[in-house]
Amino acid sequence: MPVDVDAEVISNTRLSDEYNVLAFAAPEIARLTQPGQFMMVKPSRGFEPLLRRPFSVFEILRDARGTPIGVTLLNKRIGVGTGQLYALAAGDRIPVLGPLGRPFTPAAAGSHAWLVAGGVGLAPFATMAEALVARGVPTTLFYGARRAADLYYADWFRARGVTVVTATEDGSAGDRGFITVPLGRALEERTAANRHADADTHAISIYACGPTPMMRAVSDLAARHGEDVEVSLEQTMGCGLGGCYSCVVRVREDGKMPHFVRSCLAGPVFRGRDLVWEELH
Question: Is residue 195 part of a domain?
Fold first, then answer.
């Protein structure tokens, strides 16, 4: 069950004029969170904005003994609410409800994990990467951004043993273009290797989060190579508990007729092949 806490801000690390990482003292949420779950955060105690905002749990904070003591969120300043989160200072308190939603499915034993992130879509993958590495699962992060300076936390992942493959729209780091460029190449190379009878390729588990067009492209790429992908949707949510129906998406699960589900309950993690992508924005 989620818990609603009056969380104190431990720190506010501003990564740029747009992005920051907020750390909260929330041991109950930290203890319960599984990779891929999210929180509903009220940016201020006032009436604007009136509703909470959903944010993936970014990191689990632990003390020297490894006991969970708090969580972080990765924020991009866009509107009123995210601007208020950007402006918070250590010692401030705001309401935080979590953890919520369906988490990622753990990678199968003996497989490799590929995490595909675009921009702020990096958010659910810090907890996921730590869980994968702790289980000894070889992990690669495919990380796309506008420019090299926007590849936040890439070194954080490398320091934990994750292989990081990058792409930038301006070509300042990694491939020029979208992250689907190196991902597509890796899938092609894997498919070519599998054509050989003596190939020793491992199974892969693919996970993606970022702009909807990126996730759809990743899902399509994976399908063309006989793979599925789990995606973490970034739907607008009013409550996070299934009561307001503001986050519905259409799915076609296991051959059933397409039907609507609430992404805060059935997701935010879905199999790419189950989603009716044409209706997602």
Answer: yes
The candidate with the shortest Cα–Cα distance to 1, out of 104, 124, 99, is 99
CA 40 distance to own-chain centroid: 15
User: Cβ(101)–Cβ(264) under 8 Å?
Assistant: yes
Domain that holds residue 216: 112-234
Our measurement of the distance from residue 260's CA atom to the centroid of its chain's CA atoms, rounded to an integer in Å, reads 22
Residue owning tokens 């609410």: 81
Q: Cα–Cα distance between 107 and 225 in angstroms, integer?
A: 18
What type of residue is 11? S
**Amino acid letter, 256:** K
Burial class (CB in 10 A: 0-12, 13-18, 19+), 240: buried
CATH of residue 198: 3.40.50.80
Q: Which two tokens stand for residue 260?
A: 């609507």
CB 133 within 8 A of CB 162: yes
- The reported pLDDT for the residue numbered 78 is 93
Mean pLDDT by 10 residues, the chain (281 residues): 95 97 97 97 80 94 97 95 96 96 93 95 97 96 97 97 98 97 96 74 93 97 96 92 93 84 96 93 73
258 lies in a domain?
Answer: no
CA gap 20, 120 in Å, rounded: 10
